[in-house]
Amino acid sequence: MSKRSKRYTDAATRIDRDQTYQANEAFTLLKDLPAPKFDETVDVVVKLGIDPRKSDQLVRGAVSLPKGLGKSVTVVVFAEGDKADSAKDAGADVVGAADLADRIQGGWLDFDVVIASPDMMKHVGKLGRVLGPQGKMPSPKSGTVTPDVGKAVGEFKAGKVEFRTDAGGNVHAPLGKRSFPVEDLVENLNAFLGHLGGMRPAAVKGSFMRKISVSTTMGPGAAIQYED
Hints:
Elements: H1 6-12, E1 20-21, H2 23-32, E2 41-48, E3 60-64, E4 75-78, H3 81-89, E5 94-96, H4 98-105, E6 113-116, H5 121-124, H6 128-131, H7 149-158, E7 160-164, E8 170-177, H8 182-197, E9 209-216, E10 222-224
Parallel strand pairs: 1-10, 4-5, 4-6
Antiparallel strand pairs: 2-8, 2-9, 3-7, 9-10
Helix pairs in contact: 2-8, 3-7
């Protein structure tokens, strides 16, 4: 196990691991912790009451955060013809088809989101082993396989985030930057949790969102109070 930095250890003493905080209190705490020399991302992790071994309980989707992410998002698009033009007009960073698939297959992964027109899945389908482990494989459920690629590009550039359950039944998502005002982080958190809460699988019994924690890139987590 790697040794924690002095800054992390100091920060951890300021958060009570046995306490759950109101969202505004938690974000205020995080912003008051000793800071590194860069503007950290603030993340949320939600432990869901699902069985991740059962496909009908897995959760995957995307939600637009009202205050954005505070960072530039690199979006690549699989499209041709008019759809390719619409993706470029919307601000896509790279647009292609078979050539783009070859580039990614060759090891290029310097992007955040992959969007594909449905007719391009013949190229994208070959990239499952590359994009899947990175959580970047396009999916209709997350709005990244769509005929309206231009609209999708605009949404993800403006702060739409994808999320999916991991092997432990957790969902991770960015909420913005440490430099954001507390009220902006709270608004993004509420938008994310509200959307996630509406995706409860029918097979789930009892509490759906079991534990919610927020943290900065280099800091400890603070548990959030939330009524499921």
